Amino acid sequence: MPYYRVVGEVPRKRHVQFRRPDGGLYAEELMGEEGFSSDSSLLYHRHLPTAIIKAEAVEPVDAAVLAPNLPLSPRHFRTQDLPDGGDLVTGRALLAGNADVRLSYAATEAPSGLYRNSMGDECVYIASGRVVFESTYGTLEAGEGDYVVVPTGTIHRWVPRGRVTALAIEAAGHIRPPKRYLSKYGQFLEHAPYCERDLRAPSEPLIEEGEEVPVLVRTRGGLTRLVYRNHPFDVVGWDGCLYPYAFNINDFEPIVKGIHAPPPVHQTFEGPNFVICSFCPRPLDFHPEAVPIPYNHHNVDSDELMFYAGGDYTARRGSGIDVGSISLHPAGFTHGPQPGAVEAVLEAVRQGHTRTSELAVMVDTFRPLDLGPAALSVEDPAYAWTWSR
């Protein structure tokens, strides 16, 4: 995270005695990234965060095998056809992934159990509905259009308020704002399409009582269920630059040019060997001879996965793409507008059309994406040939 926050009660100095009302000491926990040489936070627990009383291996609920994208082909998956089930952790239907990132879809009304992903950060995009995100850092309310960024190792759970659909992006490392948006000291710069004011973080501690509390933990070795002697939600205060936060896609300020700009202007986050971009409603390109629609393009180093979250994606009208669709355009394939789309948008401009209405989340990966069984189960087999109609 690019800036410091303090929530609840903390002592004036780090690593000094901090006593409870009964005279005992609060238990200090340092959560730190990259061998404590990067962002960190200090959390103060009422009970020892190290006190576990049981550990057992858990069979993975998502042991699906990924398959290479062969034969090489553009793909269209209809997530709206996937069944509801599980929760926002165990109900994730694996769509695609590689060694750097896994992408899953979930639709559920069920609350999750306590969960800790110790393999990497997560960025969960709430496509519809509302949910309460609870963690050792406190509570976040999240709803349609929110990205919720969860740091590695955060114990948390998801409590939907009705049915929720979400796209889960699980990294094998850390997810951060792009470096070019930040000063060398970590402040958002004036040219950045969002800033600190747009980020929402927990504002007060979340205290829960409980004993023998299970927490599902994901590590590189697999899944383990640890049983804690006391409930992990016992933090009376914390401070630092590492914490979960939410950012709504509608607070992203699109960067607009006179002629069509390439996807880096939409970048919202970066992860290890991938980026996350937000395509938001914006003014059309305004050069008098502009073609305000993507040109045919081939990102030779990336696979491009696009989740269509709302609005009307003009460039692919007539291809079968709709809200809830995911397209995958792999490296090795040139893609672009649907045939006839260029002429259609130019005619719309002549008739006074001045804005786009599209809303989409794109993940570009710098290693090939393999395909999950959930995606293949809802694939539109005719999509690859839509440019030939």
What radius of gyration results from the CA coordinates?
22 Å
> Averaged pLDDT, please?
94
> What is the element string, with H for helices and E for strands?
EEEEEEEEEEEEEEEEEEEEEEEHEEH
Supply the helix-strand structural class.
mainly beta
Task: Trace the largest sheet across and list its strands.
Answer: 15-19-12-9-14-7-6-25
Terminal CA distance reads 47 Å
Measured as a percent range, the helix fraction is under 10%
List unreliable stretches of 5+ residues.
none
Please tally the β strands and state the result: 25
Number of helical regions: 2
Could you tell me the strand content as a percent range?
35-45%
| Main beta-sheet strand count, sense and barrel state | 8 strands, antiparallel
What is the global morphology? globular
Protein name: Homogentisate 1,2-dioxygenase
Cofactor: Fe cation
Domain Homogentisate 1,2-dioxygenase C-terminal: 273-387
Family: Belongs to the homogentisate dioxygenase family.
